[in-house]
Amino acid sequence: MVASVLDRVPGWSGRPRTAEPLVGGITNRNYRVAVGGEMFVVRIPANSGSLLGIDRRVEREASRLAAAAGVGPDVVAFIEPEGVLVTRFIEGRPVRDHTIHEPAMLERIAQSLRRIHQAGSIASGFSPFRVVEAYALTATRHGGHLPAAHERAQALAVTIERALSPQPPVLCHNDLLNANFIDDGASIRIVDWEYAGMGDRFFDFGNFAVNHQLTENDEASLLMAYFGSIACLPAPLTHGLATGSSRRARDAARPCSGYRHRRRCRRHQHRVPPGPAWLA
Length: 280
What we know:
Elements: H1 2-7, E1 17-21, E2 28-35, E3 38-45, H2 56-68, E4 75-79, E5 84-88, E6 93-94, H3 103-117, H4 128-141, H5 150-163, E7 170-172, E8 181-183, E9 188-190, E10 197-199, H6 201-211, H7 216-227, H8 237-248, H9 259-264
Antiparallel strand pairs: 1-2, 2-3, 3-5, 4-5, 6-8, 7-10, 8-9
Helix pairs in contact: 3-7
């Protein structure tokens, strides 16, 4: 199948090439392909992707915007109906777990996120609240059992969603793991845009923070680098509730993870409307 797909990439049919699998990837099979002295990545979707609500056309559009912003890899081709995405290979080194907490690295990541959030729009929205609901429904329809924490976390998510003030939607990645980061020496590049959509930038912040167990100081450094200045609020009971719940239930209800970041930021460059008084 790989050879037949590669033959359908414009300009590749009949040309000498080599392909080697790339490790990792749950919803794709990824290959590094050399053609005519150039390196590319070919992502062949797994059939299970539809169960997670992945739309490969949305991934293509988000990838194009990310590339235009200088963050994602250049998009070379999109093969239908399979939804195979071909991008240029980014030369660089992985971003390791221990480097994530360095202030200089957090600043570079913030710069990449800011470029993404200003990159433009696509015709697909992303709500972590709706995604959790959809995943729960899919799991039960296929005979799965929800984790014990799900019911309480979902109730908390409903409370949080009602409390949050509306935000202008921006392009978000929504899967900010350092496994998706590449340091090309000049900036932090971000790959794998299959969960991207227009949404709340604070979910990107929260998702990144929970995935990498950022400390309070790490979070402050990230937000300072992104917004230019922040006012760090005291840690009231509601902050502890949101933080604890997001970390304990991150697999059961990811929406909680962006909540505390909305509350902790009052900004001062890209202003976000304040939430209800009881969140301050």
